[in-house]
Amino acid sequence: MGEYQRATLVTNIISALESLDPLSSPEPCIYKVPDPLRKLKKEAYSPQILSIGPFHHGNEKLQNMEKHKLRYLKEFIERANKNLEDLLPVIEDSEESVRQCYAETISLNRYDFLKMILVDASFIVELFYRNWRGAAAWTSYDKVLLKPWLAATMQRDLMLLENQLPFFIIKKLFDLTFSSQGDLPSFTKLTFEYFKFFNTQKLPPNPEPEPRIMHFVDLLRRFYLPESLPKRTAKKVKHVYSAAQLDGKGLKFMADHSRHCLLDLDLDYKKGVLKIPHITLDDTTEFYARNLMAFEQCHYPNAAYATDYFILLDFLIKSEKDVDLLGRKGIMVNGLGNNDATFINSLATSIVYSTMSTKYYDICIQLKKFYEDPKHGWLASLRRDYFGNPWKAASTTAVVILLILTLIQAVCSIISVHPHH
Fold first, then answer.
1. For FRET with 329, which of 125, 182, 244, 308 sits at 20 to 30 Å CA-CA?
2. Which residues of the chain have pLDDT under 70?
3. Taking a C-beta distance cutoff of 8 angstroms, is the pair 236, 357 a contact?
C-alpha cells in the first residue's frame, strides 16, 4: 500500500471513529427488549394505547392518547399553580441524567426530548393523583376515556420495559409542584397505591426506599422479591419432572396461603410436600412475567430471581394435565379460559441465565431425586390403587381386616387341632 493510500485509510478510520455515537451511560436501566425475546411475542413488549418515554414516541398507533396527555399537562399546571417557565428548568437540568438512563442513544433533539419528558411525566403524576383521590378527582372527560378495559390496558402499558421514564424525574417534577400541598402523600406512596394489586407482600412505600426505584418495572420486580435473597450458584438445572409426573410418584402439591411472596416455594422432602404460593394465570401475568425476565436479562443477569421462578414454573408445567392438577390443588387460578400451557412453556425460551438461586437449585435437585427414588413409585401406586379416595380406602381397610381375622382364625384352628403337650 502506498503512502497516499495509507494516509487516506487512516483518515477514513478516524472519521468513522469520530462519528460514533457517545455511549449513553455506564449504567443504563431502561432497555429495548432483546430481539430473540421480542420475536417470541412482540405484543407482550409493545404498548397498546399509551407511549411513555422515547422508544415508542411518535408511534402513529398511539396518537389517540396524546391529546389526553396534553389535557393532563394543562390541568397539572393549573393544579400546581405553576407555569411552563417554572417547570421546564427542572427538566432541562436533568436532561443528560435522563438520557443516560436509556441503553440506546436517543435521536430526539433537545426540544422534542424535553417536551416529551414534561408531557409524559406530568401525565403520570396526574393519573396517579386521580387514582389516589378516587371518584371525586375524575373529570367527565376521564369518564369517557377511562373505561375499565382502557384503564387496565393503560396500567399494563406502564409496566412495559420499553415504556418507561426514570422514576427520579417524575418524582422531581411532583416534588417541585406538590410538595407544598400538605394533604398529598409522597409520589412514592401514590405509585405504590396505583400498583397495589401487584404488591402482594404489602411492602411499605417509604419516602426514600433503598435502593432507589429506577422505574416501574424495577418496582414491580421489587414487589416479588423475597425479603432475604438467597445466594446464587453457577450450577445449571436442565430438567425437572412435570407436576403430573411428580404427583404420580406421590408428591403432594399444596397451595401456601400463608406466604405472600410469589417466589417463596418450600419443599419438605421427607413428607413429600411442595408448597407453592397462589398464582393467577392470565394475560397480565404473561405481560409482567415477560417484561420482568427481559429486564433481568438486561440489568440483573446475575440476580435473576424472578426468572428463576418462571423457569421452575416452566419445568413443572408441561401440559394441560399439569395446569389442571395445580388448579385442583388451589395453587393456580387459570384466567385464560382453558388449560393450555403454551405461554408458560414459552416463557423460558431464548432466556440465557448463568446463575440460579441456591434455594431453587436445591428444590430442583430434590424433585428429581424424589421422582427417581424407586420406593416412591410403589408407595404412590399403593396409595393410588388402594387408598385413592374414601371408598377405596374403606374397602381396602375392610379387606385387610378380613384377611387378618381369617389368618387369626386359621392359626387358632391349627392350635386347637395340634394342642401343645
1. 308
2. 19-26, 179-182, 207-210, 336-341, 377-400, 417-421
3. no
Q: How many CA atoms lie within 13 A of 30 on its CB side?
A: 29
Joined together, the cell numbers standing for residue 363 give 428444590
Look up residue 367 and give its three cell numbers. Answer: 424433585
CA 121 to mean position of chain CA atoms: 24
Strands (E), 28-94: none
pLDDT of residue 187: 93
Query: Please, what is the end-to-end C-alpha distance for the chain in angstroms?
Result: 121
- Dihedral sign of CA atoms 248, 252, 256, 262 in order: negative
Residues 6+ apart with CB under 8 A from 117: 91, 95, 98, 165, 169
Give how far the C-alpha of residue 227 lies from the chain's centroid of Cα atoms, to the nearest Å.
16
Contacts of 274 by beta carbon, 8 Å cutoff, 6+ apart: 246, 251, 252, 253, 254, 265, 266, 267, 268, 363, 367
Taken in order 358, 362, 365, 371, the sign of the CA dihedral is negative
pLDDT tens digits for 194-217?
999 999 999 998 755 557 899 999
Q: Tens digit of pLDDT for each residue in 55-73?
A: 999 999 999 999 999 999 9
**Beta strands 279-281; 332-334: pairing state:** parallel
Q: Do 160 and 295 touch, CB atoms closer than 8 A? A: no
Distance CA 299, CA 31 (A): 9
Q: What are phi and psi of 350, to 5 degrees?
A: 70, 10
| pLDDT of the residue at 344 | 82
